[in-house]
């Protein structure tokens, strides 16, 4: 899976001189949480709803309404945006984007093709992909199995699944001498898969409906 397959394409952008109040209106109207900041066709910053809210005067301010409106009218995105911007390439694996967001503690990344902004990828997009990859909407059985950490163990385990079908499989943990796998099986005689696995000598750790 590549970033381009899950990103939001052609994101709404603002210019550095966009008033903060206009950026707030855009975020609220479009239901977004971040806006790339473009200048002369180049990505120069990123502004989030938190950045904009932090720029608003405190409720404890002694400024009059007229003074607050005057200051807010002059405040621009350039003064509150984050820079430099952490980005990811459109053809990067989705897991690279997930790792970048986890390491940098951020909720979204502008997506680039060279110097051109082509999209935005967010934590929500990564979660959508996670749900798809694990087949969470397909039902069936979710089975956790510990298999020996040796070549061929996965293929041997899979032979016990038919006539049911494996639609997703993921490594959940590395244990001494074993790998813990979580797989989802659907189809014919899916209820019999755990017993067939155990009869084949596999260590079934957990079974629950999809």
UniProtKB/TrEMBL annotation:
Q: Where are the bilayer-spanning segments? A: none
Keyword Cell membrane applies: no
Instruction: Report the leader peptide range.
Output: none
**Record keywords, A-Z:** CBS domain, Repeat
Q: Output the Pfam families linked to this UniProt entry.
A: CBS (PF00571), TTHA0829-like_ACT (PF22190)
Q: Which organism is it from?
A: Thermus thermophilus (strain ATCC 27634 / DSM 579 / HB8)
Q: Where is the CBS domain?
A: 7-63, 81-138
Q: Which InterPro entries match?
A: CBS_dom, CBS_dom_sf, CBS_domain-containing
Please identify the protein, giving its name as recorded.
Acetoin utilization protein, acetoin dehydrogenase
